[in-house]
Amino acid sequence: MTTSPERAIDKPLTSSSIWTADSIKLTIVTTLLRICTQVHITSMPLFFLHLGGSHALAGLSMTFFTLAALLTRPLIGITLDTYGRKPILLWGVVVYTITTMLYGFVAFIPALIFLRIMHGISFSASSTATSTMATDILPENKMTQGSHILDSSER
């Protein structure tokens, strides 16, 4: 027996404004996560090379991340509807933060590959949750405008 999914907000929308406290918090979380992701995209191949990996393996560093994110996204979507948006976002942010901090302690390539996979899964959870939460908190008549603003914070 399933219950209805937990919305990102507890009460129905009464405002037609895009800029509510919830949307501002969501934009801040999204922006910070994407800044961190952009730093990893540019620095991770160099880190693979620093640890003695080949140029091909350094190039594959993004592939591990991307495949993990891509393959887990459908499952993340199901868990968002089953367990709610906030718990999945929180899990994604916590795992994302932990994997980011663990990069500094990695000394060999297999551990780095494992962290890239975990980082991809947590990225998938956090990005899917924030996008879903945006549709929950944006007023229906401002959905397109609000989605574009949130999308801008992701780039």
From TrEMBL:
UniProt keyword annotations, A-Z: Membrane, Transmembrane, Transmembrane helix, Transport
Compartment list: Cell membrane
Major facilitator superfamily (MFS) profile domain ranges (all copies): 1-155
Matches recorded under InterPro entries: MFS, MFS_dom, MFS_Exporter, MFS_trans_sf
Superkingdom per UniProt: Bacteria
Chief location bin: membrane
Transmembrane regions listed in the UniProt entry: 56-76, 88-115
Its membrane topology: Multi-pass membrane protein
UniProt-listed PROSITE patterns: MFS
Protein known as: Major facilitator superfamily (MFS) profile domain-containing protein
Organism name: Paenibacillus woosongensis
